[in-house]
C-alpha cells in the first residue's frame, strides 16, 4: 500500500507539473509562480515515484513527504479562499481539487506507513541505547 501511494503521488505530481509547465492554464496566479510550482511538481513527482520503487522506502523520508503533502493541502485551501492571488473560478476549482488529491495521497501514505511499520515491527520497540 505504501509503495503504491508513493508511486501514485509521484505520477500525479509529475503529470500536473508537466501540464502546468507546458500548457500554463490561466488560473489567475502569477506566471512565474505558476511555472515554478509546475517545475517543482515535476521534480517532486520523480523523487516520490523513485522512493516508491525502493524495496523498503526510508521511513523518515516518507514522513517528510506526508508532512509536505499535508502542508501543501492546507496551503491550497488558503490560496483558494483568501485574496493572495486573483484566482479565476477555474483556478479556485483546480487549486481545491489538487489540494484534496494531495491530502488523499497523504492519508494513503500514512496508512501504508503504519501498515508497513506494523508488519515489520520497526518503530514499535525502543531502540537499544549505545553506550559510548
Description:
With 132 residues, this protein is mainly alpha-helical. It has one domain. It is built from four helices and no strands. It has helices at residues 2-23, 31-53, 59-81, 89-120. The longest helix is centred in the last third of the chain and has 32 residues, at 89-120. It is elongated. The model has no long low-confidence stretch (mean pLDDT 89).
What distinguishing features does this structure have?
132 residues, mainly alpha, elongated, transmembrane, Integral membrane protein
Q: What's the arrangement of secondary structure elements?
A:
Layout: H1 2-23, H2 31-53, H3 59-81, H4 89-120
Helix pairs in contact: 1-2, 1-4, 3-4
Assembly classification: single chain
Distance, first to last CA: 39 Å
| Large-scale geometry | elongated
H and E string:
HHHH
Helix content: over 70%
Compute the gyration radius: what is it? 17 Å
How many strands, what sense, and barrel or not for the largest sheet? none
Please report which band the strand proportion falls in: under 5%, 5-15%, 15-25%, 25-35%, 35-45% or over 45%.
under 5%
Organism: Lentzea jiangxiensis
Protein name: Integral membrane protein
Keywords: Membrane, Transmembrane, Transmembrane helix
Transmembrane segments: 35-52, 61-78, 84-108
